[in-house]
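Protein of interest.
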Amino acid sequence: MRQSVDAVPRMVDLHALYQGTPVSGFAYAQFTYTLVLGGSVILAFSLLSGLLLFLMRRTVVVASRHIEFDLRNVLYDHLQRLGRPFYSQTATGDVMTRATSDIEKVRRYVGPALMYTVQAVAVTGSALVVMLFISPTLTFWALTPMPLLAISIFFVARLIHTRTDRQQAQYSMLTSRVQEALSGIRVVKAYVREDHEAKRFERESVGYQHRALDLALVETAFRPTMIVLIGASTILVVWVGGQLAIEGAITLGNIAEYIIYVAILTWPVASLGFVINMIQQARASWSRLVRILDRTPAIQDSDQTNSGIDAVAGRITFEGTGFRFADHAGRVTRGDGVGGDGAPSFEAPWVLRDVSADVPAGTTLGIVGRTGSGKTTLVELIPRLLDAAEGRVLIDGEDVRTVPLDVLRRSIGYVPQEVFLFSDTIAHNIAFGKLDASDDEIRQAAVEADLLGNIEDFPEGFKTRVGERGITLSGGQKQRTAIARALIRRPPILIFDDALSAVDTQTEARILANLRQQFGQRTVVVVSHRISAVQDADQILVLDEGRVAERGTHADLVEHGGIYAEMHRKQLLEEALAAA
């Protein structure tokens, strides 16, 4: 390299050119040619570098976006398959944070972090090759501070990982607080608790602020540390390079080159800290995602599933069925006191015990009982929203665990006790039960649910948007919309879990009259605290403390004079007082 530099004066006297002294035309042309050639090479390499950088960014960043897309879809699909034990222990805000912020941090590792790493390796490798070619001794001294940098990176990486995990956990709590407050905004306003909720949110915000500042402190301290070490490299280059220049081992120009190369290495070293930061944040976020993705759905198809079952007639049988909820670890507790995954668990209280009944296809089953007697839990065993802890639930003589979940749940129209409507039009909420339903089918379902009159009163009719969770509708209108959603499926099994609790007795009578048209055509299970809703059922179960206390027809149970007869007398008295 020194020879190439020294060769320039021999081609043309630069000092003579500067002083204006005439030089030969050949020498001037040769100098111009060399200058243009060198400039062209530099320009070509610059353009090539820019093109390669563009292609790398386009490839890596686009790939990271595809990975983000796939990961978010996989997570969402997995979340829909997880059962009640997961959602009973995990806040909605926590799940939302993992599906948004945590996935974004993982994407940044796959995209920018990988890109910066490749770029840093390429630049560092090229610079080191040239530096070693010039002077291995000076290169050694220039890289002396690097072990200190490696040690600092090790400790900083651990701090970033721990503090990022804490920050994301606090962010989940913050998100949960917002989601909970907004979902219950009407209760907050009704009890004048705006200031109270604002203070609770402020406490969570302060917690997040402190954890974010703890992470920022580590991040901000790392960059000055790298600059100090780079400055130390520059000092060593000048000091050791000066001695080598005095000894004649290198030239003063080589010292200038080294200073330039150390400056070139500044960005790779600085980006190293940036990459380490993203990697550790991505590791913390990925571990949070894995904790969800590794959760096995408590209820799913298994090796026992009979794939040959593709339809359901509608006969429902309970054989000594019992149930108790998941323990503190989220395991479905079996009757032997052992969690569903084989791990020991405490003795959770029984919600249902030794329930037996047979409901032939096309008949109607009424279920009544006091609050907390296990009515909702019993009907949730039919579509396998829960699995029995003892005994069996049979559909057409087959254990529900052997019926494919898709076939089982498509064969059931279920109206839960807690109605949920999507932030969409009334028509789309009804058609959610049958996505390809025609306008006539939607209208007919609304008629059967005694909802058509209310819909026609709305300015936009079926196109009326119901707002988030159906907030623009009354409780009775929401329940009837949910009933229409179930009826439009025309399934062999219909389950109404206290689906008429928010309507008046006259509306209830009209809906029941429409529902009676379904009797005999499909199996209907009606859970209600009103005797009027179940009195026409083929058989009625009376639950008390999770057990079947009475069973029979309406007339038989009234004559028996037990719990059912007492409930009937009280409701007749309430109706008489209301009419007086």
